[in-house]
Description:
Elements: H1 3-20, H2 25-39, H3 44-55, H4 62-75, H5 78-90, H6 96-112, H7 115-132, H8 137-147, H9 158-166, H10 172-178, H11 180-201, H12 211-237, H13 242-261, H14 268-299, H15 302-313, H16 317-332, H17 337-355, H18 360-374, H19 382-391, H20 395-401, H21 403-418, H22 420-431
Helix pairs in contact: 1-2, 2-14, 3-14, 4-13, 4-14, 5-6, 5-12, 6-7, 6-8, 6-11, 6-12, 7-8, 7-19, 8-19, 8-20, 9-17, 10-22, 11-21, 12-13, 14-17, 15-17, 16-17, 16-18, 17-18, 18-21, 21-22
Amino acid sequence: MTGHNSGSTLLLGLFAILLILRVPITFTLAISSIVTAFYLDIPLLAIVQRMVQGVNSFSLLAIPFFILAGEIMSQGGISRRLIEFSNVLIGRVRGGLAQVNVLASMFFGGISGSAVADVSSIGTMMIPMMKKKGYDADFSVGITVTSACQGVIIPPSHNMIIYAMAAGGVSVGRLFLGGVVPGIILGVALMVISFIIATIRKYPKEQKYSLKDAIKIIKDALLGLLTAVIIIGGVISGVFTATESAAVACLYAFIITFFVYREIPMRRFIGILYSSLKTLAMVMSLIAAASAFGWLLAYLRIPAAATKALLTITDNRILLLLMINLLLIGLGTIMDMAPLILITTPILYPVVVGSLGMSPIQFGVMLILNLGIGLTTPPVGSALFVGCAIGKISIEKATKAMLPLYIMMIIVLLLVTFVPQLVMFVPDLVMGKM
């Protein structure tokens, strides 16, 4: 074996072993990188420098603001208002609460950018409410968990910022816009299958609102929805960078929550900050460790080897993309989203964008949707865990009920993969063709 081959084997082998031993992913990445660096006689200082450079990015400053804004809005009454707003719009169809669940997740995803936050906020209200109205517990959990997947692709999404960094500076504005149509299609697909299931199982419709009540509910909810408008509008108009728009949205969310809605006292803000800092510490330490790991991947030429290996299997574009989708879905079942974005982007980017000619924007949406599906699947889907805990059912029971929902998600994924216009239409329309 050459030094590079043995180094590659050590890096990837140690990573796999530590992962199997359930070592936290940040430590898995850091330990694999440090041990491999020692083996290759690379100074430890070089690894530390790569970690520091990984988080020393202005664009990454948007992440803490996104996390804080989402935390403020999720605890400040916005999720309840979005549920009422969705109920006004679509609650009167058969299985109305399931439709409301999907629509509320779509709106909330445009504020939090997090599937887990979506399940935690929307699910704590919707799952008990659906069970009380006669919906089966497994379906209630399933539709809540799968609809939360919209949160990772409907803008704003901090996962898109992580991808933009990992891909070497892809436009965050274009990524945000690229997720709009796929996110809406995913929501519509889940609504269609929910209606079919609701009709078969004879789930109830919801009450009709008076015009006065409907106007009041819509007015109340629009204040919260403006958070997403500020972020997206600021970025695509060029008025703000992604970081600046996130900071402005964070301030807006603070004012709306504590001075307009006033559902929680100001003293709760300390707890919100603490919760946000815990999440931020995990995300940034993960990015730092993954930066060192990614640098070693490049140093050992693993992305080039992976490209060559995949193209050796087949040069058929359709088969290659199907293989990559299967690989990403498989990885998503055993690892969380952020580390997978950081690890797989430098490996697959040269194949999909370089060799197959896919747009970096389309690849980003495809990648994130794949990994978002992973959040809803066993054995380590974090959104699935949260949903099952709220619904008080087993993962096995929920997963079985989610099979029709998974099928719809896979169909949308294939559309995103093979119909580039679905992703590129809005970015090209708003920001011009690249």
